[in-house]
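Discussion board: Methods & Data

I've been asked by a reviewer to show the raw model output for two of the constructs in my manuscript, not just the figures. I'm not sure how much to include, so I'm pasting the format here to get opinions. Each protein appears as its amino acid sequence followed by a line of discrete structure tokens. Is this the kind of thing reviewers expect to see in a supplement, or should I convert it first? Here is construct A:
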Amino acid sequence: MRENENIFEISIECVQTEAKKLINRRLTDDEIFSVKKGIESGLFFDIETVFKTAIENATESK
């Protein structure tokens, strides 16, 4: 793998697909911006736990 390769990415298309399932419509630009901020906050809030769990899960079977 390349060092600068993304490990995880969420596209607007993915968010719109989830919105369609949850609220049966596409989100507006303002709503997309709000969702983006919410996802970023959630990931930054406890990213250490996410990293720790993912690394432990990846290495425990070795």
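Construct B, same format:
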Amino acid sequence: MAKASSYQKSESNGVTTFTVTPADAPKFIFGLIMGGFFGLLGLMMMPVGIIVVAAAGALIWFSLADQRPKEHRAVTSFRVSPERVEIGGQSFSRDDVHRVIIRNGVTGKEVLEHYTTSASAAAGMAHRAHMARVANALTLESGGRATFLAGGMDEVTAYGLLRDVCKVLGFKVD
């Protein structure tokens, strides 16, 4: 079973530290099956099948790799007080923050808008949608720039973190 995203918060001297653990990335099952099939096919065609075995190995590697942006794969910590947000040596005054939002690192808001009759294309699209479910990030916007706070979260964790950060900053949460 894949690990779900989570966050912990701790308070000390009026400053809340949030530590976000990203979810495990989903595996591309269709790619694993096809890679295994073509790997066996390539082994039966040896020595010419070495090219097929190499391609199958690449497909299996691609199917197991975490394809989310790099920052969505690592544990992240940041500090929030009623006056400011601090992350990675940067500090943002509460009054300078335009908004704190959830942004998806893969797609924005995942909606399956494309239709296909190809089973392999549909499998790829389904994998992308599955990957997007654990690629939500909390982003702070200030001074016309977006700053990544934490990522690799499912929707429940992202909304919980958004609510807790906004409560500390004194922002209204709907």
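Answer (T.O., handling editor elsewhere):
This is acceptable in a supplement if you add a one-line summary per construct. For B, something like: Residues 110-116 have pLDDT under 50 and may be disordered.
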